[in-house]
Amino acid sequence: MSHGHPTDAPLEVYDDPEPAQTWVASAVFVLGTVITIAAVAAAYFNIDREDVERRVVDPAFTELVDLKASQTELLTTYGTTTVEVDGKPVKKIRIPVAKAMELMVADSAKVKTVSIEGATPRTVIPATRIIPVNPNSSH
């Protein structure tokens, strides 16, 4: 009695996939996707961080190192500078800080107190300045 109806054709039998295989395949796919996303994000942020350091951090740091080196050189070397005072050029001599401290210590060892009868007591530092001494002070 087959009259070409689809119900008359024999049915094909399909096997259902195993649940364990489906779970394993799904877990591997999800894990692979998460690892790929994490790797791409890490690569992006690493490149971005390096770019920021190269463009922003390194030049400023280099400028600070150069500034410190130039300042250290000024503090540790001899040199001359010409500045204008009252419209006239005045030559200034720069000496290292360590040498200036040595000279100040040597100069302070030469300090003498001079007493002249009838005069106000003063402390004289040769070739530099006169500083009044207060006779009431404890120094």
Description of the structure:
The protein has two domains: 19-76; 79-132, no CATH class. It contains two helices and five strands. The chain has a three-stranded antiparallel sheet, with no helix packed on it. A hairpin with a 3-residue loop joins strand 4 and strand 5 (129-132). With 139 residues, it is an alpha+beta fold.
Beta strands, count: 5
Order of the strands making up the biggest sheet: 3-4-5
What's the number of structural domains?
2
Encode the helix/strand succession as letters: HEEHEEE
Overall 3D geometry? rod-shaped
Please indicate the percent range of residues in DSSP E strands (runs of 2 or more).
15-25%
The biggest beta sheet is recorded as:
3 strands, antiparallel
What is the rounded Rg?
Answer: 45 Å
Low-confidence runs of at least 5 consecutive residues: none
Helix content: 40-55%
Look at the structure and give the mean pLDDT. 78
Oligomer status: single chain
In brief, what are we looking at here?
This protein has 139 residues and is α+β, with helices and mostly antiparallel strands.
Helix and strand arrangement:
Elements: H1 19-76, E1 79-85, E2 88-94, H2 97-109, E3 112-114, E4 122-125, E5 129-132
Antiparallel strand pairs: 1-2, 3-4, 4-5
Name its key features.
single chain; 139 residues; alpha+beta; 2 domains; three-stranded antiparallel sheet; 2 helices
